Fold this sequence. Notes:
Layout: H1 4-9, E1 17-23, E2 27-34, E3 37-44, H2 50-64, H3 69-74, E4 76-82, H4 85-92, E5 98-103, H5 109-112, E6 118-119, E7 125-126, E8 137-140, E9 143-144, E10 150-152, H6 156-169, E11 174-178, H7 187-199, E12 204-207, H8 208-211, H9 217-229, H10 235-247, E13 254-256, E14 262-264, H11 265-270, H12 278-293, E15 298-304, E16 309-315, E17 320-321, E18 325-326, E19 329-330, E20 335-336, E21 339-341, E22 347-351, E23 357-363, H13 382-389, H14 406-418, H15 424-450, E24 459-462, H16 470-477, E25 482-484, H17 491-498, E26 501-512, H18 517-537, E27 545-555, E28 562-565, H19 573-591, E29 602-613, E30 631-632, E31 637-642, E32 650-657, E33 665-668, E34 671-674, E35 679-682, E36 686-690, E37 696-700
Parallel strand pairs: 1-4, 4-13, 5-8, 5-11, 11-12, 15-24, 24-25, 30-33, 32-34
Antiparallel strand pairs: 1-2, 2-3, 6-7, 9-10, 13-14, 15-16, 16-21, 17-20, 18-19, 22-23, 25-37, 26-29, 27-28, 27-29, 31-32, 33-36, 34-35, 36-37
Amino acid sequence: MAGSSKLAGGQDRGAPGCIGIDVGGTFTDAVLSHGTQVVHAKVPTTPDDMSRGVLQVCAALAERCGTRLDTLLASISRFGVSTTAVTNVLAQRSGRPVGLITTRGFEAAMPLAKGRRVHDADGWLVLPAPVVRPEWIAGVTERVDRNGTVLQAVSAGEVQDAARYLVEDQQVEAIVVSFLWAFRNPVNERQAAAAVRQLFPKLSVTEAGTMTPVIREFERTSVAVLNAYVMNAVAGLDELQSRLSAAGLRVPMLIMHSGGGAASLAESRHFPLSLAYSGPAAGVAAAALVAATAGAPEVLACDMGGTSFEVAVVAGDVPRRSRGELLDIWTALSMVDVLSIGAGGGSIGWIDARRVLRVGPRSAGAVPGPACYGRGGDEATVTDALVVLGYLDPARFLGGTMPLDFELAHAACARLGDRLNLDATETAWGIRELATEEMTRAVRSVISARGIDPRRYPLLSYGGAAGLFAAEIASAIGAPRVLVPERASILSAFGCAATDVVRERVRSLAVPLVGNVALVQRTVEALRAEVLADLAADGVATGDRAVRVQADLRFERQIWELNIALPDNPGDPAALERLADEFRTEYSRVYGHGVLVQGATVELVNLRAIGTGRMVTARIEPKTVRVPEGTPARPAGVRRVRRGRDAGDVTGVPCVNWVDLQPGHVLAGPLLIDAADTTVWLPAAWQARIDPFGTCIMEPRQ
């Protein structure tokens, strides 16, 4: 943990201090940045009380800076947090009961889930687990047509009868009102919501068409329903802010949201669903910064933590999608484009009904954790397998502050292997191979879905465990190299300290792009004004606000859109013509020139304004100490590692301490690079070098 003396009062004392916290499923990570100086810490997550783990990791930062917690917090100019609180509620289906009042005749739209089917534990295709039970849905007579014309006004009495049924008979704690075409004309929806509020003044009531005024009733409704469902999940953030303020923090928290930016606590409280991918978004945002320093405009960002493995394609900016999927449910939520699978250090090995070894998606989490943690866990996990195989040094885990128990890991692998007539080491090797294959499959699916050439995309590896698998994944997919940043294990926490405030407003138009200049210009002006007002409400100074506008375009009546930046002069008809041509070019690039339809109308589905508020942020700075280019790194020891399937594939592997590496150092595999909170595996056919920013760049030998 270098740099603590300077952070306590050295040359960077005047630099703004930034703290980023990532509350993960297994560990709570923290990074403290003062100019060029960085300190980080990691403690086990406290699922019963998030604020306790956050304060513990902040205290660890203060200790490493040689100062008191209150003194450290008082000096901080930026405090950012990502959290799994909303994700946990969705995964566990533990939100509050939500009732839905919808257009009569469309009560089954939500349960049918647009025909989506997912695999259950036994491999059968089933409907996604419902958030709103069928008996919590009530239809009322009303109708607005696709042009926004009211064909049937809504009856306040009928709405109130539906509300009484939902609240008094079904005991729902919140109600969502979502009518067809309400994004065109919300008058019926607003009158219905007003009737419910009149009857139940203290009840939480949401108008879906006002909250997310976009086309597609299922996605629009699911955002409102899920947001109401997880509303109680963010109560812990208010408690955290109070405890941090009492401990000395003088600035408000910023919360990382799923769109790849930060938001105020007030906005997060209003729209908690936006935090569903808080942690992955922070990691992807930081990965984009690392990729820029490494001169890699396009990378495959891969994050392996304690409970999951995430993959994202980063091409110069944070990748986003306008119809995000949350636990198998399609929504209209704008979010980072990340694929997540249950493959992390805590993923549990198990045997299925066919007597085949499997790994994940179930995780040991923070409590009880892997068997080697010694906290009562007795099932073999990926971490246990890595300990048994020698890839992890039990005595040095978390810098020696949390030693692992080899005997418990060995016993857990042995118990699992007994059922397959395998010994502990053979079982551990199988767990590692299966985890590698699951992650490789996830990366391949992203490559296939995006239609990209993996030979152009380095793999950027981060998270506490990814460095042990990254080279083998890269070899399997044909990636040219692997980038492992110096702060790989806490990169998501760094992202929480390094991102600006981002707010977004969207409006559906669903009109031909060309020929609607006045409508486009009027909508753009309205969206800009709304986003600027949002940034002002978040406390962003006028000079620090910026807005960009994007258009979701498609060929008329197609299902999916492409997102294209809107020109600065949308009131110019020629500019919209050029935008249509730009869409055709992008469409051809993504789907192939042969699928273009000559003469097809380009339709403007949505306009979205994305506002950015510049904040004090942590930076990635070049390291000040270097060694002559090509200097071989000096091993600090040797560890016996099983490198293959056969029992005889156990050899001594040199180990290098990451803290001893500087820009200019070169390394040759087989080699293990040990940091306080992560380990990197450099296979025999690979070599590596340290770049000016401390990133380890690994490549196959030519």
